[in-house]
Specification:
Length: about 675
């Protein structure tokens, strides 16, 4: 197996042991300090009913810290094998990468066991029972899947077990990257259950928690992997630093922003930073983050770009950074059991309690168009997407290459439409009325995706991103690889595109699935992501401004758009004509006083679905027809140029063939 570096190393395992013990002690020290200051391990008692006991109060954060640490280590080792470290040729793992994947498999097995243990301790904490009463078949079968945090850690245990088994058979960079992505999902999954909607700012808290957990895993896991290989003196460690610097920079930015969002969602004012135990722990994390940034800056100045002689400096500063991270991680786990300063909001009605906010006033143009509620997921994606696109355009212009202005305008406009549909006042009204939900749906699935597909983002990325040197895959190589996978050919098949874009509507709105998704913030976000992704896939295949794994002729794309328009009509017309309200399982529970008739609201939503869906699809059909005409015109122009240059060779050959056929017919007639 050939790699970009020699697979030799010098063992430094005793030195590695000297680093592991202090890291573990600092990790546990941060946890203990956080629990003592925040009171997170204190058992809760109600009247004469005793709580879960100190074994649960102290055991839960310890096993959760073990599970979190194992998840971060798995992410770091898999990321090093797939992205940072040396790689073999033709997508095969190097010897070092394969060893890292095996180590990640063993750690994932520990992660799986620790996650299941965390689930059991979390169940005891939620029920207020000692472990002896919790670990019984009746209690586990009755309550385990009903508690959100318990369910999350059980799922993480299953994901970690899959990684542990899959690592045994992994020999390619692609598979290592896939397991790394699955590990990131496992790290972020428990964060979905860390905030109640009744505390307010639920969307900000949930998104911030997930981003915080994932960015922390990327930064900390990558640093620990580099420190591990630097201590072992494995080849290729110094070459991984420039790549890690870029990854870590983005991770730190996301970590800081998400940390501010998470604190904002759990606190009432800035003064609570020094007047509450929760705020004091947040300040401690901020101090540690400042030390981390200072250490990382020093590390970058002294080591990045230097040769192997700077390895001792790398070990020293990376070790200090790992110590600070361990202390911050321990405090972070303690924060999950610390009481929030923000108190639960008491709403006057059960409908508003279920909704998680007060009813909005009757809809008006100002409320719907200009209102604002922050949904950080789509707002953050829009800022990131627009920023990367503009940066790529600027890079092209700096090297003298042109890029159509209208494509940039289309990209920015598409993301602004998504931000409007998810963050403006219409997002609030979409939760309580089917009409405005359908407007938001059609904007996300029909209007915005067409604008995004017209901007050709993949073409821009392939032109702006530099090619990677050596055998390591860079961002450009990953894009090219992804476009040629069987999975890419499958999802761009016309039948699959048509199924996802249109038939999925029937399964959503004509079944109880819609009400189930609307009843939770995660389900609602998943539905919105489906709208955007399915709409973009359809527009991407029909418009074809980007190179596709499966190219369709113009007549095929025209037929695809026409069939989609007809299926959308068949979907919308029954809603318009129905005497039964659609989505009644949800909207009847959150019906505001100013909406007396759910049936009329549902019929209006059908009209919106028919009107807004048909117009963009019709314009899409016109665009494909114009592309077809232009392609024929271009082909005719190319043929005329070929005739002028070489003569009409094809026509001459055709006439010669006809002459020969005529001569053959004449000879047969004579015989």
């Amino acid at each position: 197996m050939q790699t970009d570096v020699a697979p030799t190393r010098v063992d430094r395992s005793p030195r590695l042991t000297r680093w592991v013990i202090p890291l573990v002690l600092v990790l546990l020290g941060g946890l203990v300090v956080g629990l003592v200051v925040g009171g997170g391990a204190t058992e809760v008692t109600i009247d004469e009913i005793s709580g879960a006991g100190p074994i649960v109060g102290w055991g839960l954060p310890i096993v959760r810290l073990l599970a979190t640490t194992a998840g971060v280590l798995a992410v770091g080792l898999l990321g090093y094998a797939a992205v940072l470290g040396p790689q073999g040729r033709k997508g095969v793992l190097s010897q070092i990468g394969r060893a890292d994947v095996v180590r990640a498999g063993w750690i994932a097995a520990l992660w799986s066991v620790a996650s299941v243990a965390t689930a059991m301790w979390a169940l005891a904490w939620a029920l207020g029972l000692p472990m002896s009463q919790t670990l019984t078949p009746d209690v586990i079968s009755t309550y385990a899947w009903s508690v959100d945090s318990v369910r999350a850690f059980l799922i993480v245990g299953g994901l970690a077990a899959a990684i542990a088994v899959g690592a045994v058979f992994t020999s390619s960079v692609t598979a290592a990257a896939a397991w790394g992505a699955l590990a990131l999902i496992g790290v972020g999954l428990p964060a979905l259950t860390g905030h109640a909607s009744s505390l307010g700012s639920h969307g900000v808290a949930m998104t911030s928690d997930v981003v915080h957990a994932v960015s922390m895993a990327v930064w900390v896991g990558g640093l620990l992997a580099i420190l591990f290989h630097a201590i072992r003196n494995d080849p290729g460690t110094m070459r991984a630093l420039p790549v890690f610097r870029t990854v870590a920079t983005w991770a730190v930015v996301l970590l800081a922003i998400s940390g501010v969002g998470a604190a904002f969602a759990r606190m009432n004012s800035v003064t609570e930073l020094w007047t509450t135990s929760f705020g004091v722990l947040i300040l401690a994390k901020l101090v540690l983050l400042g030390g981390l940034l200072l250490t990382a800056r020093t590390l970058q100045t002294k080591v990045v770009g230097a040769g192997s002689e700077q390895r001792p400096t790398l070990i020293r500063f990376a070790g200090i950074e790992a110590m600070l991270m361990a202390a911050a991680a321990g405090i972070g786990v303690a924060l999950t059991q610390t009481a929030y300063p923000r108190v639960e909001v008491q709403f006057p009605t059960n409908a508003e309690t279920l909704l998680g906010r007060a009813f909005p006033p009757p809809p008006s143009a100002a409320n719907v168009v200009l209102g604002w509620q922050v949904e950080p997921l789509f707002l953050g994606l829009a800022i990131l997407g627009i920023g990367l696109y503009v940066a790529a355009v600027v890079r092209l212009h700096r090297r003298g290459d042109a890029w159509p202005v209208l494509r940039t305008v289309a990209w920015v406009s598409g993301w602004l439409m998504i931000v409007w549909a998810t963050n403006a006042g219409i997002a609030t009204y979409a939760m309580v009325t089917m009409t405005w939900h359908m407007v938001s749906h059609m904007v996300m699935s029909m209007v915005a995706p067409i604008l995004l597909a017209m901007s050709a983002p993949l073409t821009l990325a392939l032109r702006a991103l530099p090619s990677s040197s050596g055998v390591r895959r860079g961002p450009r190589e990953w894009i090219v690889w992804g476009m040629h996978t069987p999975f890419a050919r499958f999802i761009t098949h016309p039948l699959w595109v048509l199924f996802v874009f249109t038939v999925g509507l029937y399964g959503l709105y004509y079944t109880p699935l819609f009400a189930w998704l609307m009843s939770s913030h995660v389900g609602h976000l998943a539905m919105q992501i489906h709208f955007i992704a399915s709409g973009y896939l359809f527009a991407w295949v029909v418009i074809q401004t980007d190179p596709l794994p499966r190219s369709l002729p113009p007549w095929g794309r025209l037929m695809l758009a026409v069939i989609a328009m007809l299926l959308h009509s068949f979907f919308a017309v029954p809603i318009m004509m129905s005497d039964t309200a659609f989505g009644v399982e949800w909207y009847s529970q959150v019906q505001p006083p100013w909406l007396p008739d759910l049936v009329a609201d549902s019929q209006s939503a059908g009209g919106v679905a028919w009107g807004i869906a048909e117009i963009p699809t019709f314009l899409l059909i016109i665009a494909v027809a114009v592309q077809w005409a232009r392609s024929d015109s271009k082909e005719a122009t190319r043929r005329d140029r070929r005739v002028d240059r070489d003569g009409d060779v094809e026509m001459a050959a055709y006439n010669e063939n006809l002459r020969r056929l005529a001569e053959d017919d004449a000879r047969r007639a004579e015989r």
